[in-house]
Write a structure and sequence with these properties.
By secondary structure, this protein is of the alpha+beta class. It has helices at residues 4-18, 39-46, 72-77, 157-164, 177-184, 191-196, 206-216, 229-248; strands at residues 23-28, 34-35, 49-57, 60-67, 80-85, 90-96, 105-111, 115-121, 127-132, 289-293, 296-300. The protein has a five-stranded mixed sheet with strand order 2-9-5-4-3, sandwiched between helices. Strands 1-7-8-6 form a four-stranded antiparallel sheet, covered by helices on one side. It starts with a helix and ends in a 6-residue tail after the last strand. It binds a DNA duplex through residues 1-3, 59, 85-89, 104, 121-126, 158-159, 161-162, 187-190, 193, 196, 198, 205-206, 255, 294-297.
DNA sequence: AAGGGCCCCTGAAAGC
DNA sequence: TGCTTTCAGGGGCCCT
């Protein structure tokens, strides 16, 4: 379940190991993970290019590519991006070329220095898109951008349209108390459902939504528009605090998550409610409750969260 | 607008 | 003990 802190940790561990390095070999072992290009197009386009930047937007990873030894004209003509969403169980791992292949390895990028970036995904839910365009859609943290004109390779809308429609980055200046207040006002849905809505805020998933609501002392089933200003202020602070702390601890390993170096995240030790149903709330000792909400499990303290 | 259900998929855990 | 069923979940999509 990589959410914003896990994806950011992966970005930070992967980036220094691949930026500036040329891709000399690409293998697609599971074609269905690819959108927008055939395996042959995918491999051919990536070979001979170099990772230029690695960015994150919400739970998406965005790899900008540049051609090795290209002229300025060629540079302008073909700007490619690799867009990856890890969904439930996707992992990006750094290996030496020739290391034994882990089960559920789907894509390999062999680099010129003998290292290899691997996409591994037990659930096969994640997707990888090759995107051609001057700019990648939705990159600005504040407002969704319109898609730039695509080149000869057209990405399948599914993944890219999700990227385009993302709401603001919760740790950016674009995510203000006023934005949160205005967004909650008038919404009849439950506050937790809204926190999980990626078009409202980018990057929260089930774990951090539950943790944020616990820190803010707000019941997940509260109607969004009924929150008082003091509660919205607590919610706003909790979102930024929890995400910042989780990034500092390199994310949460609950089941399968590891970063690019194979390391687990340490925020699991800090979880107050998620996965702790029946155990004592760290604040008041009341047993944590788990309840089905919108097809997902919600964990909360019935005493602290009203 | 918002909620429910379905789907993708595998492996762990629970049920029989 | 061993086979079968259930469940977990990000998010797109469809239907009401």
């Amino acid at each position: 379940m990589p959410e914003l802190p896990e994806v950011e940790t992966i970005r930070r561990t992967i980036a220094p190991a691949i930026v500036g390095k040329e891709i000399v070999r690409v293998e697609v072992l599971t074609p269905k993970m690819l959108l927008g290009a055939s395996p042959a197009e995918f491999c051919q386009t990536l070979r001979g290019r170099r990772f230029q930047t690695v960015e994150r937007r919400g739970k998406y990873l965005l790899f900008q590519l540049e051609e090795v030894n290209q002229t300025q004209a060629a540079k302008a003509a073909a700007n490619f991006w690799l867009i990856i969403h890890l969904k439930m169980a996707g992992r990006l791992l750094l290996h030496r070329t020739g290391d034994p292949l882990e089960k559920h390895t789907h894509i390999l990028w062999g680099l010129a220095d003998g290292t290899e970036l691997r996409y591994v995904d037990l659930r096969h839910f994640g997707r990888v898109v090759l995107w051609s365009g001057e700019q990648v859609p939705g990159l600005e943290p504040g407002r969704p951008a319109k898609a730039s004109a695509a080149g000869e390779i057209t990405a399948t809308p599914e993944l890219v349209s999700g990227l385009e429609r993302l709401g603001p980055e919760p740790l950016s200046a674009a995510f203000t108390l006023d934005y949160l207040r205005a967004g909650l006002a008038g919404r009849k849905g439950r506050v937790k459902s809204l926190l999980l809505d990626q078009t409202f805020i980018a990057g929260l998933g089930n774990i951090y939504a539950d943790e944020v609501l616990h820190r803010a002392g707000i019941h997940p089933e509260r109607e969004a528009r009924q929150l008082q200003l003091a509660e919205v202020e607590r919610l706003y602070a909790a979102i930024r605090e929890i995400l910042t702390e989780a990034i500092a601890l390199r994310g949460t390993t609950f089941a399968t998550y590891v970063d690019g170096e194979g390391r687990k995240g340490e925020f699991a030790n800090r979880l107050a409610v998620y996965g702790r149903d029946g155990q004592a709330c760290p604040r008041c000792g009341t047993p944590v409750v788990r309840r089905r909400l919108g097809g997902r499990s919600a964990h909360f303290c019935p005493h602290c969260q009203r």
